[in-house]
């Protein structure tokens, strides 16, 4: 919901208050039919405001979820560093450590998947991603 929608909600509530004040002020002068019409207008204005507020609440929840996801993405990005063709956990000194993560997966999906060393003799020294199946050679040695 944008600013215009919020303005619309405020306007609906304002209309309802004006109608209520009018009813209060001139209650005795109104004919019964006019009074009922004014009440119906007020109920419509309040119903519009209620619906708009419910939509606003949904949108705020979605935005909160999106913000939480973006904060987590930033936290994750700042916790790893690229060394060679892979990402590694970064310690407080800015040094990589642990097992390598797949560069392809991290850069395309933002997810960290560990690479595993190939157990096939012909692929000795090659690291493979079990998710995207890419393989990498010559990764830096692990540091713990
Ligand atoms: Zn991968």
Brief rundown of the structure:
The protein has helices at residues 3-25, 32-79, 103-109; strands at residues 80-83, 86-90, 96-102, 115-117, 127-129, 135-136. The chain has 144 residues and is an alpha+beta fold.
Number of helices: 3
Summarize the amount of helix as a percent range.
Answer: 40-55%
Overall SS class: alpha+beta
Q: Name every ligand kind in the structure.
A: zinc ion
Cα(first) to Cα(last) distance is 48 Å
| Rounded radius of gyration (Å) | 31 Å
What's the main sheet like? 3 strands, antiparallel
**Overall mean confidence score, pLDDT:** 85
In which order are the strands of the major sheet placed?
1-2-3
Strand share of the residues?
15-25%
Low-confidence stretches: none
Count of discrete structural domains: 2
Secondary-structure element sequence? Answer: HHEEEHEEE
Outline: rod-shaped
Count of beta strands? 6
Can you describe what's shown?
With 144 residues, this protein is α+β, with helices and mostly antiparallel strands. It folds into two domains: 3-77; 79-137, no CATH class. It has helices at residues 3-25, 32-79, 103-109, and strands at residues 80-83, 86-90, 96-102, 115-117, 127-129, 135-136. Strands 1-2-3 form a three-stranded antiparallel β-sheet. A three-stranded antiparallel β-sheet has the order 4-5-6, with no helix packed on it. The model has no long low-confidence stretch (mean pLDDT 85). The chain binds zinc ion. Zinc ion binds at residues 102, 104-105, 113, 129, 131-132, 134.
List the helices and strands and how they pair.
Blueprint: H1 3-25, H2 32-79, E1 80-83, E2 86-90, E3 96-102, H3 103-109, E4 115-117, E5 127-129, E6 135-136
Antiparallel strand pairs: 1-2, 2-3, 4-5, 5-6
Helix pairs in contact: 1-2
The structure holds zinc ion.
């Amino acid at each position: 919901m944008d600013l215009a929608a919020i303005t619309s909600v405020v306007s609906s509530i304002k209309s309802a208050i004006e109608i209520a004040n009018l009813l209060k002020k001139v209650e005795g002068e109104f004919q019964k039919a006019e009074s009922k019409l004014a009440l119906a207008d007020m109920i419509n204005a309040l119903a519009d405001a209620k619906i708009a507020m419910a939509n606003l609440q949904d949108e705020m929840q979605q935005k909160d979820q999106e913000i939480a996801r973006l904060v987590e993405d930033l936290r994750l990005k700042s916790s790893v560093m690229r060394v060679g063709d892979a990402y590694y956990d970064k310690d407080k000194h800015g040094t990589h450590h642990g097992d390598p993560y797949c560069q392809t997966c991290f850069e395309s999906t933002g997810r960290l998947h560990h690479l595993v060393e190939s157990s096939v003799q012909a692929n000795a020294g090659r690291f493979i991603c079990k998710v995207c199946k890419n393989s990498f050679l010559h990764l830096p040695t692990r540091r713990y």
